[in-house]
Amino acid sequence: MTSPSPGTAFVLGGARSGKSRFAERLIADSDLERHYVATGRAWDEEMRARIEQHKADRGPLWTTHEEPLDLLSRLSAIDREGRAILVDCLTLWVTNLMMEERDMAAEFAALASFLPKAKARLVIVSNEVGLGIVPESRMARDFRDHAGRLHQMIAAEAADVYFIAAGLPLKMKG
């Protein structure tokens, strides 16, 4: 394991816990050039509307990059000193990778190994999905397991790790 990246924060929480708002504040408070890497895909009108609302809520100070699959390539392309990059969110990325039958272990390892080398301040958001009951279907169990493994890898490399519940942050590391 490498030493934690001083510029990476990992923000975990449940759905509608306030994790994205908290992550955006971490970056807004930094006075760095703001970049937002969105991993979600608009599969239907409701998701399309959510994405547009999130863009509007962030406002014009953010540059948005939509990248559902090749997260590492996008991060590498925009990684610069003086920038802050928010990745939202890893669990949507995991879903996209699963749907495309990508090599999960290789994708996860590549992302984790990038973090200590990043020049930008990184804030990475993900949904904690391992706190509930065991999922009924094989695909849902695989998703939960992939997310759990990825979260452990990212948390190991991050300097700061937060868990958000009811809009309140709990600092777990850093």
TrEMBL record:
It comes from Rhizobium sullae (Rhizobium hedysari). The gene is cobU. Pathway: Cofactor biosynthesis; adenosylcobalamin biosynthesis; adenosylcobalamin from cob(II)yrinate a,c-diamide: step 5/7; Cofactor biosynthesis; adenosylcobalamin biosynthesis; adenosylcobalamin from cob(II)yrinate a,c-diamide: step 6/7. The keyword GTP-binding applies. One of its GO terms (molecular function) is adenosylcobinamide kinase activity. Keywords: ATP-binding, Cobalamin biosynthesis, GTP-binding, Kinase, Nucleotide-binding, Nucleotidyltransferase, Transferase. This is Bifunctional adenosylcobalamin biosynthesis protein. Catalyzes ATP-dependent phosphorylation of adenosylcobinamide and addition of GMP to adenosylcobinamide phosphate. Its EC number is 2.7.1.156, 2.7.7.62. The keyword Thylakoid does not apply.
